[in-house]
Each structure stands twice: as structure tokens, then as C-alpha cells.
């Protein structure tokens, strides 16, 4: 044992200041110095892409120390905001069951017809911090907390039905890649940088999700018009004990609607809070957003596949042509949060918050999430008692025998902290597994050697991205090509671009040719996979029974949909507009909103005809309007000749939005260079019911798609 030195003593010549012999190196205080991957304790590992499972298709094992260390560290990387999904908006609402799900599940909130359940729904972006913009290109979260009579059920989903990785052990790596580069902390909230594309090009399982994100689906027009997905396959059990494998969907009643690229860029600068403002304003105005909950129900077979698709692979969808979505209930958001921090920020979702009738499967991404979400909540919310926060508190009776811990707010009485007991009269007691409302894990067989592998059926990474590409209309394909070209064009590394182009070559020859041309790079051939995690085309694995396109993927439709919550901007002159009340009545009947735009704020008209001005020349921009109306009386007015009016009209035209004008308002369109004969541009000598009906139909189609195609042909892309 060495002698203790006093402060004025120098260390011996053969000993360093830290007490380490001179012939040994001090522990390097810097991290990441080795050339071999290790655990935090310096243990070298041979695989960091696969969780330890009981056989290739088995559940993930708790003994996987590498998985737990890796995810635990990831969960604690940010304090206090969420590492992912930091930027969010939320609302309270009610879910009403249709009752037809009783054939599939005994979950009370789904099985009982007319059953109403309070919910809290949080929407979010994934990549950015709390201070980032709403409208960036990103996957978005769509998570719902059901306060059921049987306990809390959390459906923790996304607005895209597949995910980038197949195994949760890769999730920290993915997020590290998509987050800002660690040296400069840029770029914020976007994937147009080298580390992201390096990751997805080398982990080709990510190509399917990447295709969704590069399509218009990556640019939500509003949270009200986003589709939601549970992503994973769940096992459901009905009252008779029969089981099925199920995928869960949210179908927006208002239809699926997304931005074009220029809109998203304008919104990020003009109103970075665009989506949260839109959601809150719609609810406050009484245009309550609605979705129908749908289930894809498939047989619970031993191999857990359906029509050649491995249901445990979270990078695969089941095309709705093969398994239709059965609508089982309706969600309606009716109230905004009273306090953002107490509710939206502190709400704690967890895919392990289950109710009887809904169980998890061996999907390795889902299995890892069961650990990660709980660990994250403990870190973010200061300890294990986050369920006592009002927004997380169950609406069912709780007696959990849990005690103490940080932020304990309940005053527990009695001695019943263990079971069985005599000191508390035996309470609380466990339930008879045959009683209604009791959660009993379904017995399923588990076998196999402990391995870090995926099933061979996980190896096909290109069939479904090809199906997605084929399902897009030509204008959507053009938007997707433009997105790839922009994103890869921002990458500095030629190797990264080349890797991603090789991945695109395995999806579609036309796609890769157009992207490569846009980048000014040679078009690669569709050579076999690079061997990373079986990245080639697996023999039939994931082949969706001959389905080469799915109509449910495209948002383009020739059938008008509802327009509830959409915004109509009416540009008026200096005097009261005749018929403005009629416009409000007709548009309001569709639960859509009218914003009156004038040169200055205040009101127009007087007395009973007085109308509030919602926007002025200084505050209006096309991004918040789904349709632009130019009223009679605009010609020669201050607003009619204002440069902002021309800007709004030009942007609305480029973005394919509906435009209507009547009287001398038509002259304003002509002066702005708007083609009055183009699709979705409606003109009339005077305001009429017919003009308003045509306008409602045009907005129900989302966009005048042929106008976008014409712009592309002219080389003036708006995306």
C-alpha cells in the first residue's frame, strides 16, 4: 500500500500525478479511442445489430446485457426533454367503440358497442429538439392513451406504418445517425446529412421507411389529416379464448393530406409552430378532428406470417388489398390541454401498458421498446412514480403495493406491501385468472438456441419499397425523386451518395436513374446486396402474394373527401363584401373555417353585418390556407394591388390549391398571372351556390394535381 502524499510533496519519478506507475498509461479521459466496438466496460462485442433471442424467432432475453446497457444509455442521453419525439402537440378526446371488435378482442373499450373512453393523443416530430419546426420532413409520432375501465392502454404509433430498423438494439444507432452531427450540432430536425444516409444505405432494411419519408407522406399538411399506425403486429384474444394477429390503423375522417416541399419550407420559416397551432385552432373553433380505428385481422398461425409476409418484421406492411382494414371505433379530439408542461410534456406512453385482450408478439423492435419506454420515463420524469401525475393517472382503481421512490405523491396507508399477508387482512389479493378484466399472458411455446440472428424472412429489404414506389402516382413519384435529390445533394460524401444510389437501383431502375441524373452521378446497376444483415433479396421472403401496388398508399384520389377543419381565405376589398355571410354559412356547414383577409386589421361592415378581420396583408401567407377566394370589390383596393396578395396567389397556384374569384376579383387573378382556365381555378361573374359547391369539391380533392404536373414539365418545381 502506497504512503499518502502531502500537497507539497512531488510524486516519485516513477509514478504519475494520478498514482499510476510511469510505465503504464493513465486511463484516457476521452471516450471512443479504440478501433474495436466494446461495451462501456471495455468488453469487445461481435454483434450490435441483433438482440439476444431464444431462437431466430424467439422473444428477446432479459439477460442481453449489451442490449440493456446500450438502450439504457440511449434513454438517458437527454435531460429533460425526450431524446426523440421532443417536439409535440396534444389534445384530449373521446373514443367510441362500434362494438364489432368483440369477435377479435375481449378488451372492453373495443368490444362493447357505444362504449366511450377518454383519451389523450400526442402528435410529434421525431428528429428535432423541442425548439425545432413542425413542418420538417420526418416520421411523426401518433400516440394515444386510452383511460379504460381495465387500466391504461397506450397505442404508441407513428404516421408511417413501417420503421427503419428491425431490431431495437439498432435504434440508438439510427437516432445518433439522424440527429445533428455531434461536432457542430447541425443540421437540426432534418435528415439531409451524411450520417443519416450512411446509416440507411448500409442498413438496407431502412429503405422501405425511407421511401415513405421521401414521399409526400414525410410532409404532413396537418396532424388532422395524418394516418396513424401501430407499426407492430399484436396478438388479440376474444372472450372465447380465440386469438388473431392484428395490425392497428388510424384512418383520418378528413382524408390523408400532405404538403409540397415549398409549403413545408415556407411554414418552417413563417410559422414554425404551424402544426400545433393548426390543431389547437381547429379544436377551439369546434372543427373537432376525427379518426376511425381500424384493424387488419389475420390468422394466428405457428409461423406468424400472412400471404408470405413475416408479421414480426416491422419494416413490412400487409397491403390492404390482401387484408382489408375493419373499422371498429371513432376517435374525436374535443379539448386542448390546459397546461402544455403538465399534460403534453409529462404524458408518459409505453407499449407495455396493455389491457386484457391485447398482447405483444416477438417482434424484436417491439420487445426492446418494452424496456426502453419504461426506462425513459423513469429518467425524464424523475423516478418510478410517473403514473401518479394527473395526465398519466389511470381511471381504473389502483392498488399496486409499490411504495416510496422519488416524487411519491400518494400517501400509502396500511401494511399490505407484500402478498400473501395477514397483517392487512390479506389485501390486496390477486385475481382469479378466469375473472373478467384480468390480464393473463397467453401461453406460447418458446424454443431455440440463444443467438443473435434474424429469421431468413427478414432478409428481403427491397420488395416492399418497390411496391410502394409502384403505388405512387406520377406526380407523387416526381415529388419523391425531388426529395431524394435534395437530401442526397446535401451530403458531402460521394461514398454515401453512391451507397444510397446502389440501394435505389435494387428498388427501381427509373427511380435510381432520375435521382442519379439530378445528382449528376452515374446510374449504378442493381447488383446483389452487400451482405450486411442479409441485405439482398431473400428468396420470396416478404413477397406480398403478387401485390405490386396498393391503392391505400397514394393520397391522390378522384373522389372528393370531407373538408372539416380546412381553412378558406377570403380576400376582401375596403368595403363589406356582399355575400360574406353566405360564404361563412356554406363553408361552416362543412365544419371548415373561413379567414377574412383585408388590407388592415379590425372589422369590415357595421352593425349586424360587421365581420372580423382574421388576417392582414402583413400577416397572411398561403401556407395556412387550403383555398383562396378573391371577392368582388378587390380590384383597385389596397389589398388587391398589394404585393402580398400576388405572392399568396402565386404560391397557392404553384402548390395546386383551389382558387376562386368572382366579379372584379377575377381581374386580380389575371393581374397576378394566374391561369383562370387551369384545373382548380374557379371564376364567376357573381357569388353563387354553384361556385361554392365547386370550391368545396376542389378542396375535397386536396390539390389540383395536373397543375403540379404542368409545373414539373415546365421545370418550375414547387417541391
Automatic annotation (TrEMBL):
Cofactor: heme
PROSITE patterns according to UniProt: CATALASE_1, CATALASE_2, CATALASE_3
EC number: 1.11.1.6
Catalytic activity: 2 H2O2 = O2 + 2 H2O
Superkingdom assignment: Bacteria
Keywords on record: Heme, Hydrogen peroxide, Iron, Metal-binding, Oxidoreductase, Peroxidase
Domain Catalase core per the UniProt entry, residue ranges: 38-427
Keyword Hydrolase: no
Cited Pfam families: Catalase, Catalase-rel, Catalase_C
InterPro entries: Catalase, Catalase_AS, Catalase_clade2, Catalase_clade2_helical, Catalase_core, Catalase_haem_BS, Catalase_immune_responsive, Catalase_large_C
GO molecular function, one term: catalase activity
Region (Disordered): 1-58, 520-547
Function: Decomposes hydrogen peroxide into water and oxygen; serves to protect cells from the toxic effects of hydrogen peroxide.
Family: Belongs to the catalase family. HPII subfamily.
Protein's recorded name: Catalase
Amino acid at each position: 500500500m502506497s504512503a499518502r502524499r502531502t500537497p507539497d510533496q512531488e510524486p516519485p519519478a516513477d509514478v504519475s500525478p494520478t498514482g499510476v506507475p510511469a510505465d503504464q498509461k493513465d486511463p484516457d479521459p476521452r471516450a471512443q479511442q479504440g478501433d474495436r466496438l466494446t461495451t462501456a466496460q471495455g468488453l469487445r462485442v461481435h454483434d450490435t445489430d441483433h438482440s439476444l433471442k431464444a431462437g431466430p424467432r424467439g422473444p428477446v432475453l432479459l439477460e442481453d446485457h449489451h442490449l440493456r446497457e446500450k438502450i439504457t444509455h440511449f434513454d438517458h442521453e437527454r435531460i429533460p426533454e425526450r431524446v426523440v419525439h421532443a417536439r409535440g402537440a396534444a389534445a384530449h378526446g373521446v373514443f367510441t367503440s362500434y362494438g364489432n371488435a368483440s369477435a377479435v378482442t375481449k378488451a372492453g373499450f373495443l368490444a362493447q358497442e357505444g362504449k366511450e373512453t377518454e383519451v389523450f393523443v400526442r402528435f410529434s416530430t421525431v428528429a428535432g429538439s423541442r425548439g425545432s419546426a413542425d413542418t420538417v420532413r420526418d416520421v411523426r409520432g401518433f400516440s394515444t392513451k386510452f383511460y379504460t375501465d381495465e387500466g391504461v392502454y397506450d397505442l404508441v404509433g407513428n404516421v408511417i406504418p413501417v420503421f427503419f430498423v428491425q431490431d431495437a438494439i439498432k435504434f440508438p444507432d439510427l437516432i445518433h445517425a439522424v440527429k445533428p452531427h455531434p461536432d457542430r450540432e447541425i443540421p437540426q430536425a432534418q435528415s439531409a446529412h451524411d450520417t443519416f444516409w450512411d446509416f440507411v444505405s448500409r442498413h438496407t432494411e431502412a429503405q422501405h421507411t425511407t421511401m415513405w419519408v421521401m414521399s409526400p407522406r414525410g410532409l404532413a399538411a396537418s396532424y388532422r389529416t395524418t394516418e396513424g399506425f401501430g407499426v407492430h403486429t399484436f396478438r388479440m384474444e376474444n372472450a372465447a379464448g380465440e386469438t388473431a394477429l392484428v395490425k392497428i390503423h388510424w384512418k383520418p375522417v378528413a382524408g390523408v393530406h400532405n404538403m409540397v416541399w415549398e409549403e413545408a419550407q415556407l411554414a418552417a420559416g413563417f410559422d414554425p409552430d404551424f402544426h400545433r397551432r393548426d390543431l389547437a385552432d381547429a379544436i377551439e373553433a369546434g372543427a373537432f378532428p376525427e379518426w376511425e380505428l381500424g384493424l387488419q385481422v389475420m390468422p394466428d398461425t405457428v409461423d406468424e406470417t400472412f400471404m408470405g409476409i413475416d408479421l414480426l418484421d416491422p419494416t413490412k406492411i400487409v397491403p390492404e388489398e390482401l387484408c382489408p382494414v375493419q373499422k371498429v371505433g371513432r376517435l374525436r379530439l374535443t379539448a386542448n390541454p390546459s397546461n402544455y408542461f403538465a399534460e403534453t410534456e409529462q404524458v408518459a406512453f409505453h407499449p407495455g401498458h396493455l389491457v386484457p385482450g391485447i398482447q405483444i408478439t416477438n417482434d424484436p423492435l417491439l420487445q426492446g421498446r418494452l424496456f426502453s419506454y419504461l426506462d425513459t420515463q423513469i429518467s425524464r420524469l424523475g423516478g418510478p412514480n410517473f403514473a401518479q401525475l394527473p395526465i398519466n393517472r389511470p381511471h381504473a382503481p389502483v392498488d399496486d403495493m409499490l411504495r416510496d421512490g422519488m416524487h411519491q405523491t400518494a400517501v400509502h396507508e396500511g401494511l399490505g406491501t407484500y402478498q400473501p399477508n395477514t397483517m392487512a387482512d390479506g389485501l390486496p389479493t390477486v385475481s382469479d385468472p378466469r375473472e373478467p378484466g384480468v390480464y393473463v399472458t397467453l401461453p406460447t411455446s418458446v424454443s431455440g438456441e440463444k443467438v443473435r440472428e434474424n429469421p431468413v424472412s427478414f432478409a428481403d429489404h427491397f420488395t416492399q419499397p418497390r411496391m410502394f414506389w409502384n403505388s405512387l402516382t406520377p406526380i407523387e413519384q416526381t415529388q419523391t425523386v425531388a426529395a431524394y435529390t435534395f437530401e442526397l445533394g446535401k451530403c458531402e460524401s460521394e461514398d454515401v451518395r453512391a451507397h444510397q444510389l446502389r440501394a435505389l437501383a435494387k428498388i427501381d431502375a427509373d427511380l435510381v436513374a432520375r435521382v442519379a441524373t439530378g445528382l449528376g452521378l452515374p446510374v449504378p446497376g442493381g447488383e446483389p446486396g452487400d451482405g450486411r444483415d442479409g441485405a439482398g433479396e431473400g428468396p420470396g421472403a416478404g413477397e406480398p402474394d403478387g401485390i405490386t401496388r396498393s391503392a391505400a398508399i397514394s393520397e391522390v384520389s378522384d373522389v372528393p373527401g370531407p373538408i372539416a377543419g380546412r381553412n378558406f381565405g377570403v380576400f376582401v376589398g375596403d368595403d363589406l363584401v356582399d355575400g360574406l355571410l353566405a360564404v361563412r354559412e356554406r363553408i361552416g356547414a362543412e365544419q371548415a373555417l373561413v379567414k377574412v383577409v383585408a388590407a388592415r386589421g379590425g372589422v369590415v361592415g357595421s352593425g349586424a353585418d360587421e365581420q372580423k378581420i382574421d388576417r392582414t396583408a402583413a400577416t397572411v401567407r398561403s401556407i395556412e390556407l387550403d383555398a383562396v377566394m378573391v371577392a368582388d370589390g378587390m380590384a383597385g383596393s389596397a389589398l388587391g394591388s398589394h404585393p402580398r396578395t400576388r405572392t399568396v396567389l402565386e404560391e397557392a397556384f404553384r402548390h395546386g390549391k383551389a382558387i376562386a374569384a368572382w366579379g372584379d376579383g377575377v381581374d386580380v387573378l389575371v393581374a397576378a398571372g394566374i391561369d383562370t382556365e387551369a384545373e382548380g381555378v374557379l371564376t364567376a361573374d357573381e357569388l353563387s351556390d354553384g361556385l361554392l359547391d365547386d370550391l368545396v369539391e376542389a378542396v375535397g380533392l386536396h390539390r389540383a394535381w395536373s397543375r403540379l404536373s404542368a409545373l414539373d414539365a415546365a421545370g418550375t418545381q414547387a417541391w
